[in-house]
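Backbone shape codes:
===
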Amino acid sequence: MFDRKDLLGLEGLAEEELLFLLDTAASFKEISERDIKKVPALRGKTIVSLFCEPSTRTRASFEIAAKRLSADFVSLSSATASVAKGETLLDTARNLAAMKPDALVIRHPSAGAAAFLSRRVPCAVINAGDGSHEHPTQALLDLLTIRERKGKIRGLRVAIVGDILHSRVARSNLFALTTLGAEVCLVGPPTLVPPVFSRWAEVRHELRSGIRGADVVIVLRLQRERQTTHFFPTLEEYAHYFCLTPEALRSARPDAIVLHPGPLNRGVEISSEVADSQRAVILEQVANGIAVRMAVLYLLVGSRRGVASEPAAEWRAVNRTA
């Protein structure tokens, strides 16, 4: 069941809601395999994206997802929106809301920006990443990829490696993975994994011990653009201790898979040998991002919003009309 106006984060979502989102996303995957990759589920609906930070794959993924559901999609960035002329974010959002979109997809450098707007505009608000807070759709596509490869999430050992402090992906994954019964270990230098995170997960500051026995290794991008001070002496030293190489990966289970939210810093947090290996499922993550965002848009904007029903059955009914 998923009966919410917005998707602002995964913290606080129940196991049933997370599974419902994943099941709905799984049911959308086959549309991307068709010759004509479009269904009429959101025909007549309008989705507006407002990205106040650079993005390639997330924005493209939302746009492709919306268009595969036949929605109209309007893409704005901070460089072209009125915020660049001094208008406040709230005034920009209110003006966009006055044009009666059905959903606003927002990425913003400030944590809480999506929640702030969700209380002030009537349309659905989807958080596409707010500061170092959450990135819910990225975590959902990670979960979908893990479940497809491993057949389950409950009982898995998942190591999240790297810049935990600045990572909204790490937070969303941490909340969702623990809700779904996975054992999570956060791995990184003490400056990038503050002790407070031990409230939610095991914390390790040594790569090989952190990923030992892991079924899944999620490698995070080193977010130097968010770092206002020096968290480690040099990139070379960080790579020496925390770059996931084939040698380090031997500490994980032999069938462990490797995820990365992208973009990759090859040779810094992940070696090319690992990134290009059969154990890396990075492009599967990107492909699943389309299905996840289709599911989120469909559940928040589509006619089934507020209706508690079995997802696959309803989607099959929509699918037959395509």
Summary: The CA atoms of residues 2 and 17 lie 5 Å apart. The beta strands are 46-51, 72-77, 103-108, 124-130, 157-161, 183-187, 202-204, 216-219, 257-259. Residues 282-301 form the longest helix (20 residues).
